[in-house]
Design a protein that fits this description.
Length: about 450
C-alpha cells in the first residue's frame, strides 16, 4: 500500500512476496534508514548501527559489532579478532545468562516462600534482560540505579515516537513549542552523562568483573584506530553502547512476557512443554544451555510466540535510495518502508489456523526466523537484519526452560487474561502479566 504522510511517500508492505522483494531482491536499494529528528537527538546524530544511514560508516560500525575486525581498510583496522554479536562471542557470555536466570528462579522461590505466590512476571522479565544486557555490555548491573532504568524507559519510549515535523516540515515547531524536544534533549543529556561515566570507569580500569565486556572491546578498537590514524569518535562508542541497551532489552523481555501469557491461556501446551523440559533436564534442576538443543518443542513454542507477537511488528523502517519498481508499482527515491510482519504472520494464505497459538506447526518444519523465510521475519532480513538473534534467543530459551522446569503457573483467581498490546518500539502487553507460581 503506497501512502503519503505529509510530504513523505510511505510504502506499507503486508505480504511475504513484497517483503522478499524489499529485503532480498532489492535489499541494497532499500538498505537506508529514514532520518528521524527525535532519534537523531537521542543517538548522537544517528551514529549508532540501527538508525545510521546506509554507507561506509554504517558498514564499519556494524562489522565492528558483528564480524571480526581484520579489514585491510585504514578506517577501522584492528588486530583484535572480536565478534561482539557473533555466535562465538554470544556463547562466551553463557555464564552470565545462566547466573542471571538462576537469580530470577531464586527470586520466584523467595516470593512464594515469603508472602504471596502471585508473581509480577512482566517486571521479572524486564529485570532479567536488563541485568544480562548490562553485564554483557558494561560488566555490571545497574539494578539499584532507578534513575538509569527510568531514563532507559523514557529513551525507548521516544524511539517509537511519531514526530509530525518529520512528515510535515512546516510543522517542525509544534514539538519545540509543546516541550517535547526539550524533554528529549534532557533525557539525551542525562543518558550521555551516565554512559560517559561508564566509559570513564572502564578507561580508569576500575571495573570489576570477570569477562571482557562490550565497552572494553570498543575502547580497545578505539585505541588501535587512534594508533593507525583513523580514530573512532567518542560519540560513536557511546551510540553503540546505547544501541545495545535499547535494542536488546525490551525486545527480548517482550518475547518472554508473551510466551508466558500464551502458556497461561493454553494449559495443555504448557503441560506438554513442561513434560519435554522435565524429561530432558529432570525436575527442579537448574537447566544449563547444553540441554536446550534437545528441546524442539521449547523452540517451537518460542517461534510460535514470535509469529503471533513479533516484538517489532512494523520492523525498523527502511528508505529507498533511488527510484525503483516494486511488484509493478513505481517507488520514488526516499520512500519510507514499513513491513507489517504482524499481518504477514497471520496471513491465511501462508499459515493454517493463523490466529491460533499452535506451536506444533513448527515441529518438523524448516521455517525459521533467520531471514530466509519471508512469511516469518520477526528479526527482519537482509543487510539491515537484526544482528542480535543469537543473543536474544539464548536468553529467552534458557529463561523459559528454567521457568517451566521449576514451577507450575496459573492465573490469579478472578483474573482474566488480557492479550491487548501497548504501542511502542517493542510491543508489550498493555497490562502487567501476573501469575500464581507454585513449585512443581
Ligand atoms: C527478540 C528480540 C529481538 C527482536 C525481535 C529484534 C528485532 C529487530 C528488527 C525487526 C530489526 C530491524 C531489521 C530490519 O530492518 O530488517 C532489528 C535490528 C537491529 N537489532 Fe534487533 N531484535 C531483537 C534483539 C536484539 C538484540 C538482543 C540486539 C543486540 C544485542 C539487537 C540489535 C539490533 C541492531 C544493532 C539492529 C540494527 C541493525 C542494522 O540496522 O544494521 N537486537 N532488530
Amino acid at each position: 500500500m503506497l501512502l503519503r504522510f505529509g510530504s513523505k511517500p510511505v510504502l506499507v508492505v503486508s505480504s511475504a512476496a513484497a517483503a522478499r522483494e524489499i529485503m532480498k531482491t532489492q535489499d541494497l536499494v532499500f538498505a537506508n534508514r529514514p532520518r528521524f529528528t527525535v532519534i537523531s537527538k537521542l543517538l548522537y546524530g544517528s551514529r549508532d548501527v540501527a538508525f545510521s544511514p546506509y554507507g561506509e560508516y554504517w558498514r564499519q560500525i556494524r562489522s565492528l559489532c558483528v564480524v571480526h575486525l581484520l579489514s585491510n581498510k585504514r578506517q577501522i583496522r584492528s588486530l583484535c579478532v572480536v565478534h561482539l554479536l557473533s555466535n562465538k562471542r554470544v556463547l562466551s557470555f553463557r555464564a552470565v545468562r545462566e547466573e542471571e536466570t538462576t537469580l530470577m528462579i531464586d527470586k520466584i522461590k523467595q516470593s512464594y516462600s515469603s508472602s504471596s505466590s502471585v508473581v509480577n512476571l512482566t517486571e521479572l522479565f524486564k529485570s532479567l534482560t536488563n541485568d544480562v544486557v548490562c553485564r554483557v555490555a558494561s560488566g555490571r548491573k545497574y539494578s539499584e540505579e532507578r534513575r538509569f532504568k527510568e531514563l532507559l524507559r523514557e529513551f525507548v519510549g521516544y524511539l517509537g515516537f511519531f514526530d509530525v515535523g518529520d512528515y510535515i516540515p512546516w510543522l517542525w515547531w509544534v514539538n519545540k513549542i509543546n516541550g517535547l524536544y526539550g524533554r528529549v534533549e534532557r533525557v539525551a543529556k542525562e543518558l550521555d552523562d551516565f554512559i560517559e561515566s561508564v566509559v570513564e570507569e572502564h578507561e580508569r580500569g576500575e571495573r570489576k568483573g570477570g569477562h571482557e565486556d562490550f565497552v572494553d572491546v570498543l575502547l580497545q578498537v578505539q585505541r588501535e584506530n587512534v594508533a593507525s590514524g583513523s580514530p573512532i569518535h567518542r560519540e560513536s562508542v557511546k551510540a553503540l553502547i546505547l544501541d545495545m541497551f535499547s535494542a536488546a532489552t525490551d525486545t527480548t523481555a517482550s518475547v518472554l512476557e508473551w510466551v508466558m501469557a500464551e502458556l497461561l491461556g493454553h494449559p495443555l501446551i504448557l503441560k506438554k512443554l513442561q513434560s519435554e523440559v522435565r524429561k530432558i533436564a529432570g525436575v527442579k534442576q537448574a537447566i544449563t544451555e547444553d540441554k536446550l538443543e534437545k528441546m524442539p518443542y521449547l523452540k517451537a513454542v518460542i517461534k510460535e510466540t514470535l509469529r503471533l507477537h513479533p516484538p517489532v511488528p512494523l520492523l525498523v523502517p527502511r528508505e529507498s535510495m533511488r527510484d525503483t519498481q516494486v511488484m509493478g508499482y513505481n517507488i520514488a527515491a526516499r520512500t519510507q518502508v514499513f513491513t507489517n510482519i504482524w499481518t504477514i504472520g497471520r496471513d491465511l494464505s501462508l499459515w493454517a489456523r493463523p490466529d491460533e497459538f499452535w506451536p506444533e506447526r513448527f515441529m518438523d518444519s524448516l521455517v525459521d526466523f533467520r531471514g530466509h523465510d519471508f512469511e516469518f521475519i520477526p528479526f527482519g532480513a537482509g543487510r539491515r537484519g537484526c544482528p542480535g538473534i543469537q543473543f536474544a534467543t539464548s536468553v529467552d530459551e534458557l529463561a523459559l526452560a528454567n521457568l517451566v522446569g521449576n514451577f507450575n503457573f496459573s492465573l490469579p483467581v478472578g483474573e482474566e487474561l488480557d492479550m491487548s498490546e501497548a504501542a511502542g518500539l517493542a510491543v508489550y502487553k498493555r497490562t502487567t502479566l501476573l501469575a500464581v507460581v507454585t513449585p512443581c
